[in-house]
Structures are given as structure tokens and as C-alpha cells.
């Protein structure tokens, strides 16, 4: 039997997840609060992502509850998560249609974000395949998903992607002059100099609901560490289990990174 304090903390986390999910669902009735601009919509998606993180944290600790309550909570969380998934799909459709009606173009760097919205449709399909029948979830209309996918394909084709920030950072790192420092030497020793190795920077992050967001200087710090280690960003991304674009977005603070990736990057910088 877990300690009362542990259960109290878990119940508090469960309450936060449920309230957060309900707030997201209610906001769906007010498109002017989430679909009037790209920044508004992105903020709404961030709130949805935070909800998923909260639910993940609760589900990881469900074994602390007794069997009867654990099964009921698991069922309720799956249903609440599915309701938010449906909101996510509908909100995407509303946002794209509203932006189109107003004749607005997507801002610079929006393509990667929109592509992730498209990828999410596949994730949502997989979630239903896994839990739909077991928990009696209402099926998401195929026509709706197809419509959202077509809308996204259309705006993705017209939107701009981020510049290759990784390449820019690597190039800047290579262009920086090597710092030469004089050193003390014994009489008669040949005069020379040594290269001063940069001291690896710490990876500065902000933790939000269990996810790690890097500050704006992390990209340059990692690029310098790669240059010193004679490693490319592609190789580092492969080691971390992500692609080059994902790594760039995480280091630029545009995407969250997992605790594992944060710790791997932190250790990489310290060893540099």
C-alpha cells in the first residue's frame, strides 16, 4: 500500500489532468480564442500537448491504486484523452479554414509545425486502433480526417520551413578564430602556443509539465561541441534517435525534448 502522501500527490495530479482536459474541450466552443491566428492556434496545441503529458504521468503511476479503482481510472483517462484527440482534429480544421477565409498566409517557419499536425493524424488513428474497441470509443469520422489531411497538405505546400539552423550554427562555429594562448615554458624550450579548448556550456532548459525546452543558445553550444568532437549534427541526431530537423527544433526551443534526450545532450556537452 503506497504512502498516503504519495496517493495524495497522485490524486492531485489526476485532478489537474482532468481539469486541463475539460478546459481544452470547453475552449473548442470558442474558435475566436484558438483559431484567430497562428500563434493562438499554436498556443492551443501546446495546451493539448501539456494535457497529454499530464495523462502520461498519471497513467505511469496507476499501479499505485487498488485494482478496481485502477481499471476505472484507466478507462476514464482513455476516454478523456480520446475526447481531446477529437478536439485536436476539429480545431486543426477550424483553424485552417478560418485562416483561409481571412486570406492570411502562414508565418515563416510554420511548415514544420504543420507537418507535425499532419503526422498527428496517424498517431490518433493508431490510438483508436489500440483502445477504441476495448473502451467503446466513438469512431472519428474518416471524412473529417481526410478533409483535415487535405487541408494540411494544401497549406504545407504553401508555407515556409525554418532555415537550416543546424548548418548555420556549424558554419559559424567553423568560422570562429582559434584562440591561441601563450604558456609558460622552461629556458631553452622551443617557443610555441597551444590551442585553448572551449569549456563546454551547460545545456540550459526550462521544464514544463515534465518536458524540457532548451533556451536559444543551446543550438550554438551543441554545434561547437560537435565541431570539437569532429561529429556532424546528423550523427548526433542519429545517436539520440531523432532526425536532424527534430534536433534543430529542440535545440532552438521550438519543440520539447524528453528527459532522456536532455540528459544525453547535457552529458555530451560536458564531455566536449
List keywords for this structure.
4% strand; two-stranded antiparallel sheet; mainly alpha; two-stranded antiparallel ribbon
Beta-strand content:
under 5%
Mean pLDDT: 80
Cα separation of the termini:
45 Å
Rounded Rg: 24 Å
Number of helices: 10
Count of distinct structural domains: 2
H/E element sequence = HHHHHHEEEEHHHH
Unreliably modeled segments: 173-200
Helix content: 55-70%
Q: Describe the strand arrangement of the main beta sheet, using strand numbers.
A: 1-2
Explain what the structure shows:
The protein folds into two domains: 4-158, no CATH class; 165-182 and 189-271, no CATH class. The model is unreliable at 173-200 (pLDDT under 50). It is 64% helix and 4% strand. It has a two-stranded antiparallel ribbon. Strands 3-4 form a two-stranded antiparallel ribbon. It is globular, with a radius of gyration of 24 Å. It has helices at 4-27, 38-60, 67-101, 111-135, 142-158, 165-175, 218-228, 233-240, 244-251, 259-271, and strands at 180-181, 194-195, 205-208, 211-214. The longest helix is centred in the N-terminal third of the chain and has 35 residues, at 67-101. It starts with a helix and ends with a helix. The protein contains ten helices and four strands; from the N terminus they run ααααααββββαααα.
Amino acid at each position: 500500500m503506497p504512502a498516503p502522501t504519495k496517493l495524495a500527490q497522485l490524486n492531485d495530479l489526476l485532478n489537474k489532468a482532468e481539469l486541463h482536459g475539460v478546459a481544452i474541450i470547453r475552449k473548442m466552443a470558442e474558435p475566436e480564442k484558438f483559431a484567430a491566428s497562428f500563434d493562438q492556434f499554436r498556443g492551443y496545441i501546446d495546451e493539448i500537448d501539456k494535457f497529454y503529458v499530464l495523462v502520461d504521468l498519471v497513467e505511469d503511476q496507476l499501479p499505485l491504486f487498488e485494482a478496481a479503482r485502477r481499471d476505472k481510472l484507466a478507462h476514464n483517462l482513455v476516454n478523456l484523452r480520446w475526447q481531446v484527440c477529437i478536439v485536436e482534429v476539429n480545431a486543426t480544421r477550424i483553424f485552417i479554414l478560418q485562416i483561409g477565409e481571412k486570406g492570411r498566409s502562414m508565418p515563416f517557419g510554420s511548415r514544420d509545425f504543420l507537418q507535425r499536425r499532419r503526422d498527428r493524424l496517424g498517431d490518433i488513428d493508431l490510438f483508436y486502433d489500440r483502445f477504441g474497441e476495448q473502451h467503446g470509443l466513438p469512431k472519428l469520422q474518416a471524412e473529417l480526417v481526410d478533409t483535415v489531411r487535405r487541408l494540411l497538405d494544401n497549406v504545407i505546400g504553401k508555407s515556409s520551413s525554418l532555415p537550416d539552423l543546424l548548418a548555420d550554427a556549424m558554419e559559424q562555429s567553423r568560422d570562429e578564430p582559434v584562440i591561441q594562448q601563450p604558456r609558460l615554458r622552461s629556458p631553452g624550450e622551443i617557443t610555441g602556443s597551444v590551442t585553448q579548448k572551449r569549456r563546454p556550456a551547460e545545456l540550459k532548459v526550462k521544464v514544463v509539465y515534465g518536458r524540457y525546452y532548451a533556451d536559444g543558445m543551446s543550438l550554438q553550444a551543441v554545434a561547437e561541441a560537435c565541431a570539437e568532437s569532429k561529429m556532424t549534427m546528423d550523427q548526433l541526431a542519429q545517436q539520440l534517435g531523432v532526425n536532424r530537423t527534430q534536433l534543430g527544433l529542440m535545440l532552438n526551443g521550438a519543440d520539447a525534448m524528453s528527459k532522456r534526450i536532455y540528459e544525453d545532450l547535457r552529458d555530451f556537452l560536458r564531455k566536449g
